[in-house]
Amino acid sequence: MKTSRIALTFCLLAGIACAQHVDATPASQPTVPQTTFVIHAGTLIDGVSPQPKRNQTILIRGNRIVSVSDASTAAAPAGAQVIDLSSATVLPGLIDTHTHIFLQGEDPAEGGYDIQLLKYPASFRAARATVSARRALEQGFTTIRDLETEGAGYGDIGIKEAVDGGYIPGPRIFAATRAISTTAGYPLEGYAPEIVVPKGAQLIDGPVEARKAAREQLGNGADWIKVYMTHRSWVDDQGNLVSQPTLTVEELKAIVDETHGWHKKVACHAYNGLGLQRALDGGCDSIEHGLDITDAQIAQMLKQGTWYVPTLSVYYYDWAPENTEAGRRDRKRAAVHGPSFQRALKAGVKIAFGTDMGGMPWTDPIAQEFAREVEFGMTPMQAIQSATSRAAELLDMKGKIGVVAPGAYADVIAVPGDPLADVNVLKNVSFVMKDGQVYKPAPR
Ligand SMILES: [Zn+2]
């Protein structure tokens, strides 16, 4: 019932007719007959294979893909609903491994970041996060790793529960909850020292507090732990990007040890320098942003199997005026980022697609990141795989998401045109199925 309600609500919100799909039933209710779909794919990019396949038939029962076969040999079972995507390119549902549904781009003219924590009721922020989650889904992103709520506590767990319970449409969410940094390591900042202001992350000092924060967050449902290993950054007299380190190696190791004990992983925001080095020495599972990575650090990432989630596009947003300290920093961040990405890619570092959506407005296309990945050396197929099978590996969901293959969850999208010729067609997702339910029907 709940799942039927969301699909219908989504169709109403999108102003489209898709009543024929509202009877889809989740696999968790095995006594109810499961809907069978047959999708005819003109071109299939399955998320793993190096080449696309032409004229494929995908059979879906309930929330799982049953088979993928050549259209000439496939027969539709009686009673199956046929979805004709024979003139489109079909792909697995996309995965964004670095988002913030509780942020909305923070236009300085609208009060920037601080107003979120100082003036908005939690319900207002949750309502907007609900819209962000829907936007991710309607753009074909059927899974996100949401890397902290920015002062909204455990709000991401509530949104995830609402999606999973069928109350609102949204992607699968891997939630990081509050994130961890140190004293003087996270906003709000710049207020009179006598005034106690809220902070956008949980601040710790010392390994005991670090472990306790990880325990609290894991105990309250965190799927990942997010740690800020660098905070402020600036350009020094020699023109180098410098970043303030936050946690010590000992503090980070306490978090990593605790989190790995729960069989969960740690994502570390780290720009460069000492903070990035501590992130690697302390055993972070993924480096977020990694603006300026040395060759020695790339070698260490390869040796340790560390993931790199670069988030290139967001550093081209909202540059401060050119001849200011902040303006020099903003330009330098973007200038060193692309070359770091190129060297990491060439060396074979594992790279997953991530955008930092929320750091930029959710009204902007998530898929803009693909063009940046290609600009800095990925083939279009590598870029697509960074948001499908590679991202699934980072999330320990290999074979379950990010692939169109038997046994995987039925997360399937389509775009008109050829994303291997122009990755920007991924901005125009025309069909979305998540978990065997159609959220955006095929155009007629
Ligand atoms: Zn972020």
Features:
444 residues, Urease, subunit C, domain 1, TIM Barrel, 7-stranded mixed sheet, 12 helices, 19 strands, disordered N terminus
CATH architecture of the largest domain: Alpha-Beta Barrel
Unreliably modeled segments? 1-32
Distance between the termini: 27 Å
Ligand catalogue: zinc ion
Assign an overall shape: globular
Structural class: alpha/beta
Number of helices: 12
Mean pLDDT: 93
CATH homolog superfamily of the largest domain: Metal-dependent hydrolases
Portion in beta strands:
15-25%
Report the count of strand segments: 19
Description:
The chain is built from 12 helices and 19 strands. With 444 residues, it is an alpha/beta fold. The protein has a 7-stranded mixed sheet with strand order 3-2-1-4-17-18-19. Strands 10-13-14-15-16 form a 5-stranded parallel sheet. The protein has 2 domains: 2-93 and 403-440, Urease, subunit C, domain 1 (Roll); 94-366, Metal-dependent hydrolases (TIM Barrel, Alpha-Beta Barrel). It has helices at residues 2-14, 114-118, 122-138, 155-164, 207-219, 249-261, 273-281, 295-304, 325-347, 368-375, 380-386, 389-394, and strands at 36-44, 53-61, 64-70, 81-92, 94-99, 141-146, 172-175, 180-182, 202-204, 224-228, 230-235, 241-245, 265-272, 286-292, 307-309, 350-351, 412-416, 431-434, 437-440. The radius of gyration is 22 Å and the shape is globular. Zinc ion (ZN) binds at residues 98, 100, 147, 356, 359.
